[in-house]
């Protein structure tokens, strides 16, 4: 079994000053050796709050996107196992231990959290999630129930081998497709996690629209790569 002390937590964060503290409190209960928060060009106090809760903070001068922030910080990761978490999980982040155990025992190459706890409905109608599921199944022949989940664990070296990956919200879909095509096994684990749900404001609608378009680009690039 791999040592739990060789595990790093990596949390990309953009304007998450209101929720990053509770997330880091949840992370404190995990048997990991380091916690890195990547402040992705935030305009609020995300970096200072993360520092005050004991995280190692990497501050980017401008917003580069979720995938870009993760890949930028990967050179700083010391752990053999890498746990990727979103910044808005709050104290429910403590449940992420279940993502690590199968990697320590060598049962799988990557774990992905499926949100088992039902939250209030958001403003979307599931188009982006449906697109992600369909594209992964079409390209790899495998189906995932939570293709957009940012809560994942894998070996750091495996993630480095999969680079480059999309720098935007297509990161998870691109990561999943590349991992499966390279023969890595993926196991989904239902967990009682909570996160901020997007609403019906213009800003939320535009966010979902960008995410949809970015995943479309991942699909096109993946199919072009497969045809060569």
Could you outline the blueprint of secondary structure elements for this entry?
Elements: E1 7-13, H1 20-27, E2 34-40, H2 46-52, E3 56-60, H3 66-73, E4 81-84, H4 97-104, E5 110-115, H5 127-140, E6 152-155, H6 156-161, H7 171-181, E7 186-191, H8 202-227
Helix pairs in contact: 5-7, 5-8, 7-8
Describe this structure in words.
This protein is α/β, with parallel strands linked by helices and 228 residues long. The protein has a single domain, classed as Spore Coat Polysaccharide Biosynthesis Protein SpsA, Chain A (Alpha-Beta Complex), CATH 3.90.550.10. 39% of the residues lie in helices and 17% in strands. It is built from eight helices and seven strands, in the order βαβαβαβαβαβααβα. Strands 3-2-1-4-6-5-7 form a seven-stranded mixed beta sheet, with helices on both faces. Strand 1 (7-13), helix 1 (20-27) and strand 2 (34-40) form a beta-alpha-beta unit. Helix 5 packs parallel to helix 7 (171-181) and helix 5 (127-140) runs parallel beside helix 8 (202-227). The longest helix is centred in the last third of the chain and has 26 residues, at 202-227. The protein is globular, with a radius of gyration of 17 Å.
